Amino acid sequence: MHNYRNPLLVFILLVLPFLSKAQSHAFSISGSVADTFNNAQLPHASVTLLRAEDSVLATFTRTNEQGQFSLHPSKGGKFILMISFPGFADYIDIVKLNEKNSVDMGIVPMVSKTHLLQEIVVKQQIAAIKVKGDTTEYMADSFKVKENATVEDLLKKLPGIQVDKNGQVTAQGEQVAKILVDGEEFFSDDPAVVTKGLQANAVERVQVFDKKSDQAEFTGIDDGQKTKTINLQLKEDKKKGYFGKLNAGGGTDQYYENQGMLNAFKGKRQISAFGIISNTDKVGLGWQDRQKYGADNNTITGVNEDGGIYTSFTSDDDFTSWDGNYGGQGLPKVWTGGIHFADKWGKDDAYHTTGNYRYAKQNLEVEGNTTTEYTIPESRYFTNEHSNKFSSGQRHEADGMFEWKIDTTSSLKVTVNGGYRETQTSTDYQTQAISNDADTSYNSHRTLTSNANSKNFDATMLYRKKFAKKGRTLSINFNENYRENASDGFLNSFTHYYATGRDSAIDQHKVNNSANLVFKGKATYTEPISKVTFLELNYSVGVNNSNATKSSYDKQPSGDYTDSLNPMYSSDYMYNILQNSGGASFRFVYKKVNFAFGGDMSNTAYKQKNLSTDTLYHRSYEYSYNNFFPRINFNYKPNKQSSVNLNYYGSSKQPTIDQIQPLRDNTDPLNVPIGNPGLTQQFNHTVAARYNFYKVMNGEYLWSNASYTYINNAISRADNVNPDGTRSYQYINVQGNYNGYLYLGYNVKVKAVRIGARINTNVNRSKTFVNGVENISNNNGYGIDFDFNYDIENKLSIYFTPGVGYSDNKSTISTYTTSYWYTGNDLTVTYQLPKKIELGTYISWYMRQRTPGFEENTSVVRWNAYISKKLLKKDQLEIRASVFDILNQNMGINRYAQNNYVTQTNFNTIRRYGLFSVIWNFSHTPMSAPQNNDSNK
């Protein structure tokens, strides 16, 4: 049973001593451990016995004062005996207990690490899996994969590691956030670049560990912040040449998919490059850091949990999903590529630099229909919108890092990145509103065009200094972030309202410009109070200045837009923030417990001003807040296989400049937002808990995570629905909002089958106002899914993931509810035929329950299949024929519920096509020695 079931564990611990005394020692291994070079016994040496078949611990002991040991496994068999002693090389030997009940090892010679090169021979065998402290290390060649397999294929073979259908990696129950190569980050921590691009035969070791925060690694004080990380340690011969992959594919209906990856290594110097040209759903190797392009027009400014100002950027641009597959709407054409460089040099690698450059261009055609059900007091109405959109955009981004270890006590690290993007977009909308009694409220036709560009530049500088007293440190950090956006376009709209017979026409020239500058400096000092107690002090000052100019010019009878500014839909607004913050925290670190509490006090001053005297609004707002941001963190690690974490912290969120800017935005004249200069900050109270348990050898893990956030002064909305069906809304502050989630996952391997189950629940309560009536919406979701993975090495692989969920949506202003069931089932099968032929298929079935207003059939069955053949020496060449969406049922559809409305969008997407591909894996290692591919397998 699992060791986290405490009553059973206590019972076993109480009974075990009596049972061990009551039974005879049927099997035994004994001996003595000695330093034969110095003729000395080694007391308290660690003696471990592992089952050879799966490296599971059989028993453990330490030598006595005379260096003697005795082990008593419960049954016979083949075992791995491991003996360790500080300063000496590990002794590893194979011991068999079959017919003989006992084995006397005699004197076991241990060799000092300083004498390893002398004429003393030690029996050793490389173990497939080693656990070194908090690091689990897998010897890659001990896990057989097919020729030219990728790192992703290798990871799927390792116990305790899972890779889902999207390429997301989970290790020991936690999502892997970083995948390093020889300790280096590739393309801003993008896991897909590494797992899908690197070859498995280049990897010597796969190391899984919890990476401490940079601050914890520097100070030596564990702050409890850790990131699940995988490091791929390359073979020495792979560091002296190059290797990579080319994939060229063309198919029916003018589909194509071409990509390449090159990796070149020379010692500690690394150069990697990739490129993709495609109009399928393969549009990238993954772009997790889209905000670095400065491409987003929506700026969110706030104060994070440590009291510091932050700025984030949201985007409605569906360029790529994190795993490099197109996750948006429509038909894309993409040209993208990048190059990565890293090197270390100097004594003790005193100098370290990395650099990346990336380019991406996309053309996108989207056609869709959106149906939205709005609930208003004791009634409801629907809008149906048909849209056609074409956009073309390109991005450039470069970033670099330089780190200098000045001496053993101090270092300097500088990072910079910058980007530029330009897009051209043209969208045509046709919208109809239908009231609850099926009468048409209005018909509208609207066209939007825009030419936009954006720039960004970010820089950080971090200086760190350690003092003579252990744990006494000083860190000084400066951050700068700059964003600039500009757009120029036209709005042309015509709407007919049936109730009044009124027609409304808009023809305007739209010119928008915005800029945002954030600068922050912070100093952090740590002081040890005792060996287990530490004090941290910090002080920071930050500025966040934003300016947004939005100008709307009406078309004149002459056809000119010049000097015809419309003040109702124009604004020139300034939003500046100045913050001073200081805080302290105490941390207690002792063996299995890590506990910290503290907080920051901050004064944040705001200044808002409309700079344009030509508009309807010309006021200034100046106000300030004194905030306290408490933090409590508790970590308990009862053993290396499990951990418990509890957190509480307070944080604030500031209004965006778009929410407060006193402007009526008529970009969509049927849904008009109105800025609220009186909008104030919200404050979040968040409580989170996590429990994790895992066993490496059989891939068993239990992972649970829960969070609850209560919001004071929440930023919400007040909607006003007019009798003609048009709507305006404004952001306001309310009380009583909260949200939370619960996730529970379990995985275990039973013989040849991996079985997993996951339960997830999310709850959201939000208060809004609709036509002056308070509306409390509860939008909750519940889901459960399973996965079954059956694998016969190099023969058959079956991966099946069924799941079901329920979306529960209720609103107090109406008796109407829109709740529905949905289910998703995925099946992946690969089968190896003779003569290196492989068959594979993927079937995905997704269904949503029909509801009033959404009564069409939304069941989708996607079926893909391929056949491939390996050629050349070591299977370096592969030819593959694939068919996607065989049943031609792929349907683009999204449905979501929020507050008092439910929206469903149907859109065009990639449908049935065939693709013929040629894949070439290549490598060149001129200085490498011949490898024995059969070793350690």
Question: What report would you give on this structure?
Answer:
It is a single chain. By secondary structure, the chain is mainly β. Among the domains are: 6-125, Sandwich (Immunoglobulin-like); 129-234, Beta Complex (Ferric Hydroxamate Uptake Protein, Chain A, domain 1), CATH 2.170.130. Helix content is 4%, strand content 62%. The strands form five sheets. It has a 26-stranded antiparallel β-barrel. A six-stranded mixed beta sheet has the order 9-10-16-17-14-15. The longest helix is centred in the N-terminal third of the chain and has 17 residues, at 6-22. It comes from Taibaiella soli.
CATH class identity of the domain at 6-125? Mainly Beta
Strand content: over 45%
Rg value: 32 Å
**Percent helix:** under 10%
CATH superfamily of the domain at 6-125: Immunoglobulins
Give the SSE layout.
Elements: H1 6-22, E1 28-35, E2 40-41, E3 46-51, E4 57-62, E5 68-71, E6 77-84, E7 91-97, E8 102-109, E9 129-132, E10 135-139, H2 151-157, E11 161-163, E12 169-171, E13 174-175, E14 178-181, E15 184-185, H3 191-197, E16 203-212, H4 214-219, E17 226-234, E18 242-251, E19 256-266, E20 269-278, E21 298-303, E22 309-314, E23 331-345, E24 351-376, E25 379-404, E26 410-434, E27 440-466, E28 473-497, E29 502-528, E30 533-554, E31 571-590, E32 593-610, E33 620-639, E34 642-653, H5 657-660, E35 671-674, E36 682-695, E37 700-712, E38 714-721, E39 727-734, E40 737-750, E41 753-770, E42 773-792, E43 796-811, E44 820-833, E45 837-848, E46 860-871, E47 877-884, E48 892-898, E49 901-907, E50 913-924
Parallel strand pairs: 1-8, 14-17, 35-39, 38-41
Antiparallel strand pairs: 1-2, 1-5, 3-4, 3-6, 6-7, 9-10, 10-16, 11-12, 12-13, 14-15, 16-17, 18-19, 18-50, 19-20, 20-23, 21-22, 21-34, 23-24, 24-25, 24-49, 25-26, 26-27, 27-28, 28-29, 29-30, 30-31, 31-32, 32-33, 33-34, 34-36, 36-37, 37-40, 38-39, 40-41, 41-42, 42-43, 43-44, 44-45, 45-46, 46-47, ...
Organism: Taibaiella soli
Domain Outer membrane protein beta-barrel: 465-767
Subcellular location: Cell outer membrane
